[in-house]
Every structure is written in structure tokens, then in C-alpha cells.
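Moderator note: this is an archived Q&A kept for reference. The question asked for a predicted structure of one protein chain; the sequence and the answer are reproduced below.
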Amino acid sequence: METDEQQIRDLVVKWIAATRSGDLDTVLGLMTDDVVFLTPGRPPMRKNDFAAASKAQVGGKAPKLDGRSDIQEIQVCGDWAFMWSSLTVVATPPDGSAAKTRSGHNLTVLRRQLGRWLVARDANLLVASPG
């Protein structure tokens, strides 16, 4: 049986793979219904906002996304957990122009629901970085 920590690490791998392949349904399935994303300079984003923004980018006009997460710490407290990581996201426009890289630290709060770990809160401090 997998440990809680391994299940959370697997969630991160699945999230990145689904993002890379454009599988929005899988990504949405990895978050709670009341998820909140916090990013610098923007209002909090909820699940329906995340879905709408992602769907607005379909049709070949969306950048190809790739990422890498280097998990630094995972702590589990009952049905809640948190992790922080170093995260890099690369967005490559479909028109062949230069990719844009954002990197920084990320703090994620997870909640176990029906035996599965899901992202409940996420705060990222990603900033533009040299590609």
C-alpha cells in the first residue's frame, strides 16, 4: 500500500502529465470543488475560473505547457497535508515564438476526500525567468 506521501507525489506527476497533454478533465479531477489558487497580482481563482480559463485556450491557440516540480517537503496531518516545491512552468506558443518560462516556489494544501488526495489550496510565487 502506498504511503500518503507517495500518493501526493503521484498526484503531482499525474497533474504535470495531464497538463502537458492538455487533459483538462484529469487536472480538474485532481482538485477539490472548493479549490482556491493564489497568484501574485491576481484575484483568487476558483475551480470554475480555472476551467473557464483553460477552455478559453483550446482550438490550437493555446500554448503548449510543460512543467517540473521539485518537491521540498510534504507534511500529512490526518486528512490534510501540505507541500512546498520549486516549480518551473514553460509555455511554448503555437506560433513558434520563444517559450516563456516562469519559476519559483509553490505552497499547496491538499485534502483527502473519499480516500484520494486532492489539491484544495495552491499559492504560487512563480515569476518570469530566463528560458
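Archived answer notes: The chain has a mean pLDDT of 93.
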